[in-house]
Amino acid sequence: MLALYSYVQFGTSLLHIPEHCPPEQFGTSLLHIRYHDGMHANTVKTVCVWALVAAWCAFIFFASAHTGADLDAGDDLLSRIRLTLDAWQTAAFGPDADVISTAAHFLEFLVLGVLLFLALSRHFERPRTALAVAIVLASMYGATDEFHQLFVDGRVCDPLDWLTDTLGAALGAALTWHKAHRS
């Protein structure tokens, strides 16, 4: 018997919806993706993970191009959060402490380490190689981030920030490797 299909063009792929298929045959989804031009689902996932890496790097660059004073001047939600965190930091650690900046560096690069490991593990057969390369690339991006801050008024290039970036990325990549390794 001939099956009838509805096709929808989506970039270089076609989505086709089998009109005769009961839901229990395909689980909860009736959509199937048939890729053309040699494009496979694995390729799409790889591109998506690398897009997340690029977006996160852009976020880090954006954050490095601004100072805390940029946020202090506004009356929006981010400015209020920044002022609240500054007040908490001063009360807890004194006026000279910079815990929030250090934590921000660490967390930004922890996420970058996770994303880089996920992206690189799609290209390397050995997960430990992906782990090492993720840490090196994140560390190199941390160094360029610190260099970039030389050109931003109110920011400085701080080798301790680069170390914090590298440690955050190493922890993020290692935790992701460990979780993948245990599965």
Give an account of the 3D structure:
The structure is a single chain. The radius of gyration is 23 Å and the shape is elongated. Helix content is 63%, strand content 9%. The longest helix is centred in the first third of the chain and has 24 residues, at 41-64. It contains 6 helices and 3 strands. The protein has 2 domains: 5-35, no CATH class; 41-182, no CATH class. It has a 3-stranded antiparallel beta sheet with strand order 1-2-3, with no helix packed on it. By secondary structure, the chain is mainly alpha-helical. The model is unreliable at 1-19 and 21-37 (pLDDT under 50).
Provide a quick synopsis of the model:
By secondary structure, this protein is mainly alpha-helical.
Strand content: 5-15%
Shape summary: elongated
Largest sheet: 3 strands, antiparallel
Order of helices and strands: EEEHHHHHH
Content-based structural category: mainly alpha
Strand order of the largest sheet: 1-2-3
| N-C termini distance | 42 Å
Number of domains: 2
The total count of helices amounts to 6
Helix content range of the residues, please?
55-70%
Number of beta strands: 3
Regarding quaternary structure, what we see is single chain
Low-confidence stretches: 1-19, 21-37
Mean pLDDT level: 80
Report the C-alpha radius of gyration, rounded.
23 Å
